[in-house]
């Protein structure tokens, strides 16, 4: 249960962080002056005319979101699994986003590799918490011998 909840929290925080980084990056490298891009064709056309900056903002924001979400997931769970759940989820999102926006193959690769590298960094930055140590602390508080004479 802890793994599932920490993975879910990590993914939610990853998307919030990604949106924040994309908003900041979008104000530095705007895609288009037209804020009413609603149709798929309009978005693709605006992105084809955009420079490298706005495209990199999307890729880097997905990687930074995966880093923030992965750090939180590992901190909450103490294990590696939730970090990779967040990283793989963000890599899949990055791939879908880059594919939808018809980015060049190099940026498509970056959209997948960036979150995976962020997951690797998050896994190494936060130490793995030994759950056995927590169980030992509980055992020290209530020794087993004290309960030996109690009826079942």
Would you summarize the structure shown here?
The chain is mostly helical. The protein contains six helices and no strands.
Largest sheet: none
Mean pLDDT: 82
Total strands: 0
Count up the domains.
1
Given the C-alpha coordinates, what overall shape results? elongated
Number of helices: 6
The helix/strand order is HHHHHH
% residues in beta strands? under 5%
| Helix vs. strand class | mainly alpha
Q: State the end-to-end CA separation.
A: 28 Å
Question: What does this protein look like?
Answer:
This protein is mainly α. It has one domain. The chain contains six helices and no strands. The protein has helices at residues 2-28, 40-49, 52-77, 81-100, 105-125, 131-141. The longest helix is centred in the first third of the chain and has 27 residues, at 2-28. The chain starts with a helix and ends in an 11-residue tail after the last helix.
Mind sketching the topology for me?
Layout: H1 2-28, H2 40-49, H3 52-77, H4 81-100, H5 105-125, H6 131-141
Helix pairs in contact: 1-3, 1-4, 3-4, 3-5, 4-5
Fill in the keyword field for this structure.
single chain; 152 residues; mainly alpha
């Amino acid at each position: 249960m802890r793994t599932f909840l920490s993975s879910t929290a990590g993914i939610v925080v990853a998307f919030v962080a990604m949106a924040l980084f994309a908003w900041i990056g979008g104000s530095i490298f705007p895609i288009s002056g037209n804020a009413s891009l609603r149709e798929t064709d309009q978005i693709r056309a605006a992105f084809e005319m955009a420079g490298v900056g706005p495209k990199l903002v999307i890729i880097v924001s997905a990687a930074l979101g995966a880093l923030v979400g992965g750090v939180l997931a590992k901190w909450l769970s103490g294990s590696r699994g939730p970090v990779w759940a967040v990283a793989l989820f963000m890599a899949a999102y990055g791939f879908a986003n880059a594919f939808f926006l018809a980015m060049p193959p190099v940026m498509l690769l970056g959209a997948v590799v960036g979150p995976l590298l962020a997951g690797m960094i998050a896994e190494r930055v936060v130490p793995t918490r030994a759950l056995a140590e927590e169980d030992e602390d509980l055992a020290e508080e209530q020794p087993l011998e004290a309960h030996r004479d109690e009826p079942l």
